Structures are given as structure tokens and as C-alpha cells.
Amino acid sequence: MSEAIKKEGPVPFTKITAERYISSDYMQRERDQLWAKTWLVAGVSQDVVEPGDFFVFNLEPESIIVSRSEAGELNAFFNVCQHRGARLLLTNAGAMQTYTCPYHGWAYNNDGSLCNVPDEDHFSRGIPKDKLALQSLRVEDWAGAIWVCMDPDAPGLQDYLGPIIDLIEPYRPHDMALVEDQTCHLDCNWKAVFDNFGELYHVEHIHPQHELIFDCPTSTNEFFDGGHTRVLIDGFTVNSRLPIPDDVPPTQWAQMETLGLKKEDYTGRVLDVRRDVQLKKRELGPALGYNYDLLSDGQLSDIVQYNIFPNVVLVLQPEEYWILRSRPHPTDPNKCYWDKFALRMLPDTSIQEKATDKFPALQNRANVSFNLDQTSDGTVRPEHDEFDQEAIIAGEKTMTITLDQDIHLIRDVQKGMHSRGFREAWLNDDEARVQHYHSWIDRYMRE
Ligand code: FES
Ligand SMILES: [Fe+2]
Description:
Layout: H1 19-22, H2 24-35, E1 39-44, E2 53-59, E3 62-68, E4 74-78, E5 93-95, E6 98-100, E7 107-109, E8 114-116, E9 136-142, E10 145-149, H3 157-161, H4 164-168, E11 176-186, H5 190-196, H6 203-206, E12 214-223, E13 229-235, H7 253-258, H8 273-288, H9 297-301, E14 303-308, E15 312-316, E16 320-328, E17 336-345, H10 349-354, E18 385-388, H11 389-393, H12 401-417, H13 432-446
Parallel strand pairs: 11-18
Antiparallel strand pairs: 1-10, 2-3, 2-5, 3-4, 4-9, 6-7, 7-8, 9-10, 11-17, 12-13, 13-14, 14-15, 15-16, 16-17
Helix pairs in contact: 2-13
Bound molecules: FE2/S2 (inorganic) cluster and fe (ii) ion (FE2).
């Protein structure tokens, strides 16, 4: 582990009972003590690049507008009209110079300033325009995502994320393009689905495909100040607890082929694939249009997942990046929204041109990452797709096979939380990231 990583000591024990998952009162308190105090991913950076671009981030009862002003400045505002409190924007995204309230027609510039009040001379109190501008909140653009914070006294994003900033930057997430934008409505508390991404203990039981490309038993858990964690998992390998197969599993074929590695050459030496994938990516990176210069060899073949407190999971590979986000339901602690933004590094033709053209077979450039499901190539922003968990369970929608498997299971965890027979979670050592996370949930909820 690098010295820069601020690792906490032993994870403090926290008793995890059902209350935090099922209580309406607890959910109510989270609004003030958690959501109003932390940095939250509001959306993706590429949606607010041009002057006038905006999108709306809903975290009920809050709704937040993120916009790029005519002057090019990035802003975030509470989506509420200063006249009588109507929700101002009812559309989720677009480009507009002014926002006009649907109720009485007050209009605001996209920098938040109030620009038009119908019958202004009828306000004998006057219209103090400074006071009546849209209420702003803190906003930052980092790692391809827009981050907002409602608390003016909270630490800045840099301090909030600490060493994680420098650990993620080499992946150049800001250069990646959105290829998928989904929201699934789940019948579970927003923390129940987040917990699911805090441990790999369940992987051997519900994600059998992983044992043929990842080695979860040798993964490394790391813990950061602030409740964040990460896990590093070797890729292009097999589960070390199972017999090593003679032949390379089909889960690795497509990526190997892209890199010019023949699966037949690895019969009887499947464990050599990982190293050779690293070497090939180094050799062919420029010809593929990828700049791998900032990444270590291990990072070329492996996968890393950061759980950012309180509700975001960032999954990073050199060519692909997922932002997963859990949001509470407006009124029901037994429901939540599970968002997935998938981004992909688009091959850079200027790098490719400088590289030799001795690799004409390198056509299918997307196939160097693990997640090959997305159909978009990132040149056009994909439409937002929103659906119910039933659509996943019926096989009508997919968020990738792995997430679908989690979604099949998670509503039953929520059901169990309501039983008199459930007393508290009993975690093993591999679930220490869940423990760490909840100890920080407790810190916020106690304050
Ligand atoms: S509430 Fe917006 S104009 Fe009246
Ligand atoms: Fe899972």
C-alpha cells in the first residue's frame, strides 16, 4: 500500500440493526445529518460543458439544478423558485438561457440571477434582486462527475476525498465518455444496495462468472478517513480457491483476441494471461489509441472499486469507468433508486496516428475492458433509461449480468430486515468495508 493512503486503524465496531434500513424516522434524520453534510455526485461532467447546459439532480425532498452559465461558470442551485417556493425546473436536462417558473412566471438567468418578475411594480416590498437570486450550493467538477454539497461549512471536496483524488487521477476518468445512463427502482433501502458493494463475500455465491476472470479471495480491502473504502481485485486470472482450469475461460477470450493473444497458447498456463495482458497493453496501447502511461502494470489488468461515502461506487479499469449511485426514495425507507453511469475511454486517434500501423487487426478496440455489454460507442450521449427491478428480474432490462444478479437478491434482504427474527448483522473480516462504512454512518447520525 502506498504511504499516501490514509488508512484508519482497526475498523471500529458498530452494531448494525434493522432500524437504519426500515425506520422512517431514521430516514428523516438522514436528510439533515447525512445528505445535507456530505459531497454527492449530482451527475456527469459532460452534461454541463457548453454555456446553457443544465441537468437536475433529484435527492428528494431536494432537487438541485447544475448549470453552466453563459459566462462558462459552473453553478448548482436549489431547484426552487424564490417567489412562493414552486419547483422551478420540471425537465431533467437540456440547455436554456433562462429558467421560468411555471407558477407565476418569475424568470432566472442560468447564473441564478433573477431577471424578470411579472407585474414587478405590484410588489410594494420591492424586488431585492440579490436576495431573490436562486439559492446556490457548492459544486465541483472532478473525475468526470459533478459533485455538490449543501453544507457551506463542510470540508472542500479535496479534503473530503483525501488521498483518493491522486489514486484515481491516473485513470483519467475526466477523458471518458458516457455510454450508458440507467436508473433502476429497487425495493430496498438505499444503504442495503450500497452494502452489497462493500464486500466480495457474496461473489462466489451469486456471481459464478467472476471466478473465471477475477481472483476475489486475494483481493485487498483498504479503508479511508471519512468512511470511504476501496478494494483491489486481480483480473485476467481465475479464483485461486478453485482448481486452475487447463484452458483459458471464455470470459477472457474477447479481450485477449483484441490484444493479439491466442488462447491456445495458454493451455496449461492460464495464470500467465494476466502478466501478458499487461505487457501487450503496454506494447499496443498507442496503436489502440489508449494512453496507459500513468497506470501501473497491475492497473492494466486489474479492477479497483472505490466506495465513496455515503452513496457512490466508482469502478475503474483503464478503458472503462462506472459511477454507481444509490438515492433514497422520497418517502419510503424500503425503496431506493440505483443509478449507473457507464463511461468509456474513447480511443484517441492522435495517439493512434503517431503509433505504428503494424497492427491492422486492432479493430475492435472496446474489447480490452471487462464490461462489454454497452452498445453505445460514446460518440452520442445515450438516453437516460429508467425502469423497475421487475424489468431486470423478467430479463427485459440489464445493468450487466453482475448487477442483475445483485438486484435479484437485494429486495429479499430488505424483507428480512422487517422480521422479529433479525437482531443484527454479524460480519466477517472480509466485510470490514461494510463495518467501516456504517461506523461513519453512525458518526454522522450521532452528531
Ligand atoms: S412560485 Fe414561482 S413565480 Fe410564483
Ligand atoms: Fe454482487
